[in-house]
Fold each of these.
Amino acid sequence: MMRKLLPALFVALAVVSCGRKASQSKLPNYPKVDSLMKVMTLEEKIGQTVLFTSDWSVTGPSMRPGYLDDIRAGRCGNLLNAHTADFTREVQRIAVEETRLGIPILFGFDVIHGFRTIFPINLGMSASWDIDAIRRSAQIAAEEAAAAGLQWTYSPMCDISVEPRWGRISEGSGEDPYLGSLIAAAMVEGYQGDDLSKDNTILACVKHFAAYGAPQAGRDYNTVDMSERWLREFYLPPYKAAVDAGALSVMASFNELDGVPAHASAHLMQDILRGEWGFEGFVVSDYTGIMEMIHHGYAKDLADAGRLSINAGLDMDMMAASYMNHMKELVESGRVSMKTVDDACRRILNVKAALGLFDDPYKYCDTEREKERTLTDENKAFARRFSAESMVLLKNNGILPLKKGEKVAVMGPLANSKDDLLGSWRGAGEVKSVPASVLDAVKEVTPVGDGASKVILVIGEPWSWTGEAASRSSIKVPEEQIALLRQLKKQGKKVAVVLMNGRPLDLSEESELADAILEAWYPGTMGGYAVADVLFGDVNPSGKLTVTFPRNLGQVPIYHYAKNTGRPYVHPEAKYESRYLDVPNEPLYAFGHGLSYTTFGYSDITLDKTSFKGADVLKARVTVTNTGDREGTETVQMYIRDLVGSVTRPVRQLKGFERITLAPGESREVEFTIDRETLSFYRQDMTWGAESGDFDIFIGTASNCTKNASFTYEI
Ligand code: GLC
């Protein structure tokens, strides 16, 4: 009788209590959660803190064959790597109808750059600098994923990185905290919308918390060690922006930070995430991350690891089975308090309530909606435009755009690959959904044959060389690809190189030999057509690098917000200055670099005042003119340098940008507002704020722009 009564009770209560929407950052109290908590056993509460993978796809080093039995027994309340409306409906039925309390399963999946319609990899998306398009891509991904039984994505990946050896630099938004923060917030808004209980929005997950993008030697999972100042100034902002945008889950990172694995860092999860940022959602481990603290040498066994994690604020155990196997004994022995388990369980149930799962556990499992909403013509048309927008024209001596109808050769190991277009973390994207490779797409617009004088050479990295557990000790393309380029140039060919890759590459030889270089990243489902659209001028490229491309690995780490040092390299022949003997200090391609098929002229910068103070603001203006013969989009970038501070300050920091589209000959004034917050940083006493002093402002087409003006600020 008890069993039969309870589900009916919850449905009734759910209708009353879950009508309220989760606000963007705060969760309301759900009376139904309260009533559940009152009747749940310790084992059932622990079950809600357990996340296992199905056997649909493998995203980590272990599997859990008996996950359905775990669900039936109430030992597992959450499942990852399982989708489709049909499959999730059956698993949900087991949870709702075959367990004592019928608490619905939360289904999660890595929807990183699209679900079925795959967009460019995130490093590519970021190169569009198009925040609205990035938000729209997350919305489409959410619509497609929510139609396939999913309520939770392990995205946005907010890891800043200046480490091209690291395979996962492909998954993030590059090196800049200002741009990365805007992108992180936009993706959360796109995924979660204004109401998590809608059937086309999904729960975002801020990962990997924190500073996973700074592994020593660029080797995945390796040690991360940096000052608190550097962490807060350059690595934490995108995570915070995502939390401020309302993300209700966070994933801990595999790395240690300052000697403490993030999976047991109370400093990260309690002091900063919950204490300073007011985060109210739940924290999930990464795949077996809790168990890995044994390898870190931080926990002596799986029980100890579980104790350390949950007491540090980690609510859900992905795949380590530490909480499932040891939490009951940890509570009964007093090493973990009942309140700690209650808090973890409640946070998870609150999010399930916010998703509307108690109102209708099957609302996301609709096969008709699944068919209607995925891979629609509208989604594919958007993907094609967005993919072209993400591409960066690194070099062009005039060979591009190519002329339709003029015979070209198309060569290179990636020219006819549909698989590589999708990149890593391709969600439920399938090669069979890719309509054209680059070769296919070029053939549709012009004759293709090898006797041609112009060659499109598609080279780079196979997609498996990027993403998780894919660090490289070299950042060059394979030697045989460069040899092919050398050969073509020896034959007097004009060569447009199309790059498909997921990291900054050492292009020092290619940049000398190629007549043009188009950085296409892994451009997604519609990427073959998007590459052709750019090569033949249907789209004028507008992408800008969001990560610095070095001349060689020896320059790494190299990034635009570097410090000046006490011996800046300013005298070409000087010895005792910070320089190399064999290469210049400047990168091959700077952060913010990207060419167009037109040209843009910049006026001098005008300031509405040369000094301001307190809460006043200063306006900086520049007039940009399209000085070429075709319409183009330019990302006008604004950088600030604080000349003297209580700690040393970067020579450039991105503090604003605006994308503008100009017709040939058209001019437009672009205005940036500088205020106290623009100038704020972690001062020597680690307080956040501005300081009085002199500043330079730079506005231009890339981080190495030289047009500047100066002003003074007084706090
Ligand atoms: C992986 C990744 C993480 C992903 C998770 C689930 O190990 O580190 O980014 O979300 O496992 O697939």
Note: Confidence is low (pLDDT under 50) at residues 1-24.
Amino acid sequence: MNVRGKHFRTIWVKKKDSSTVQIIDQRPLPHKFVIENLKTVKQAARAIKDMHVRGAGLIGATAGYGMYLAAITAPKNDFDNFVAQSADFLIKTRPTATNLKWAVDRQLTAMKNAWSIKEKIRIAFETAKEIADEDALYCKLIGENGVKIIEYLSKKKNGAPVNILTHCNAGWLAFVDYGSATALIYEAKKRGIKVHVWVDETRPRNQGARLTAWELLQEGIPHTVIADNVGGHLMQHGMVDIVIVGTDRTTYTGDVANKIGTYLKALAAKDNDIPFYVALPSSTFDWEMTDGVKEIPIEQRGNKEVKYAQGFHDGKIKQVRLTPKASRAANFAFDVTPRKLITGLITERGICNANEEGVLRLYPEKRK
Ligand code: MRU
């Protein structure tokens, strides 16, 4: 996707220096565009934990490259041990996005059968690249599959702009390119379909207000940022045609974990008969868990994210406190939307019902 007209992915290997992985540091966005170098697995882990990178797909791609950095920096006399410890270390950085463990496991499996360190490093590099390329391709396909829904709504409205509500950032910043929920929007624009996006600000870290708004601006998509609690009101007044969100983990039975607040949007959509779709690449499916509400681990982050807000003032990025100093705050980062509230899942293989039968029809190789 484009930043000031120049194409970027969110993660790549530095030109002429294969020992350095580069990322866009998302913390100062939209105020500053900063590229960060990662040279060690510890730096990759910190980038995931402290949210220099974030979003399920990009967390997975960064973990893939993190494993590559582990391989090239591992001591020769303790290679396998170092790589195994690095895998554990990476997996523990964030608990909810399933892409993280998926990517680390994919690297461990790929490296397992190589007979020399040199070969393991080559495989780790190829696998990291494969994970990133696949993520970008799958997101593109999600866009091509899902755009039919927007096309249909547009025809129903005789070409008037389709009003899409989205939560958090399920855009290209959350993946390697295109995004999941936004892929449909970008594809719609390419096809000349008029859209307008309601962007939930997404407290406490404001991924909607800071990141989704910035992305949509770069891509020239009409959008309006709204406070988190506005969606229900807009739905009651016919101002939302469809809700499209991303997900950090989706059980193969159709329950969806996504950024905190998603569940409330799904309830409001149900009450107002508005289609509620979730877009995801297959790397986000959890093929073991059956009950998302009971089983998906929900990350609880530091209370500072709730008590303080970040903004731009006098040319500087600043943090200001919103609450009384002594008040306690809790910071649940995700919630689970049960399958009964979801109209459909949009994947790289097509669109399906949010239930076991629908998902396994698209992924028959996962039938047990
Ligand atoms: O905590 P974050 O910013 O990593 O949140 C994850 C997300 O990006 C959202 O939940 C998003 O909607 C899912 S799409 C990858």
Note: The mean pLDDT is 97.
